[in-house]
Amino acid sequence: MPSAVEQLAKNANWGALAKATELKQRLLFVVMALLVYRLGTYIPIPGIDPNVWNEIFTQKGGGILDMFNMFSGGALQRMTIFALNIMPYISASIIMQLASSLSPQLEAMKKEGESGRLRINQYTRYLTVLLAAVQAYGLAVGLEGMQGSGGSAVVDPGFMFRLSTVITIVGGTVFLMWLGEQITARGVGNGTSLIIYAGIVANLPLAVASTLELGRQGQFSFLALLLIAAMVVGVILFIVFMERAQRRIVVQYPKRQVGNKMFAGDQNHIPLKLNTSGVIPPIFASSLLLLPLTIVGFSGAQGGEITSMIARYLQHGSPVYMALYGMLIVFFAFFYTAIVFNPNDNAEMLRKYGGFIPGIRPGAATADYFDYVLTRITTVGALYLAIICLLPEFMVKHYSMPFYLGGTSLLIVVSVTMDTVAQIHSHLIAHQYEGLMKKAKLGGRRR
Length: 447
Prior knowledge:
Layout (H helix, E strand, L loop, with lengths): L3 H8 L9 H20 L9 H11 L3 H8 L3 H4 L8 H16 L1 H7 L3 H31 L2 E2 L2 E2 L6 H28 L4 H26 L5 H23 L1 E7 L3 E3 L2 E3 L3 E7 L6 H20 L4 H10 L5 H22 L2 H10 L11 H36 L7 H40 L1
Antiparallel strand pairs: 1-2, 3-6, 4-5
């Protein structure tokens, strides 16, 4: 017999959305916030010659700049106030999470509860400002050294241009960091992921049109276009299947006596997702690779032999780049899973409430079993992420397929969509529960 939750989930429909006032307000807030973000991607940095910069970007595009431009929602190509997007905040989050695992002081701060979490978030914000300032200054210096057929990309280079560029870009990054936190708190879904998601989705129609144009020009045959479409659909279906896959660990609760009554033991399960880390590993891996490659991309031949070597070996689509990207994805998949699910804490919680896994002794043995299962499924999940993100990279490299149709972008779009829809359904189910409770109270009063 289906439970009440399952029945409500089955009966939940989008028609109930009209009655869920709080959910409508949250969705409206998300839409308005993302519109503000998209508007900001069209506000240019002062002192840039747009025609010269567009020519330079076209010449240098096709590699790592396209990846950066994808994450920035096209803001880098237009050189706007959101040129760095929210990537400095993601880099700062990576550094703080690594530091929390290595520093006993930060580890103790995390265990302080809400106050400790707020302090770590504040440190992350400070680090975001520092990273954004360094990257913005490097971007300003790089722009001053770029020349196109129409002259320099900067109208009036010098100290004032660098200062205004740093202030403008840091301000844009801090605003996006704040906007992401507001979306998470007052909207639906993760704000940071939704900002990156909005930038990718906004450029997907252009990527499809670009692919069709290549077909019209004869670079792709009709069969090749069909194969690309089939590959995209297949990747999406594979992502949906793997993101929904989970391992359910059965948990048994013993019989208990309350007063003179004996209650039968209950059986439940702990669902462990195959990909516990979600879209975090590809985003983190891309963010770390973008730090040195951005400097290489803007310094060009002025960086010396070391810069030339980095540019040669870490070129987008090169074997070294692919290997580093894949290894970083696997590393962050295990690292983030270890942060999200702690086997010792979960084993202790089960023991505290009297639960046990059939055939496994409570305590240390349960923690070891959790670790064993989690290691196996995370290995499969990490390999799945690496395959999804690397295989389309070969298509982009060898067949000039638009970067927005790559595995990383499709993974972010599909995963964020599934997560947001799941949260919307949760709000709808909660709203239906509230309606049932009100009806029950009214029925009780009438009787």
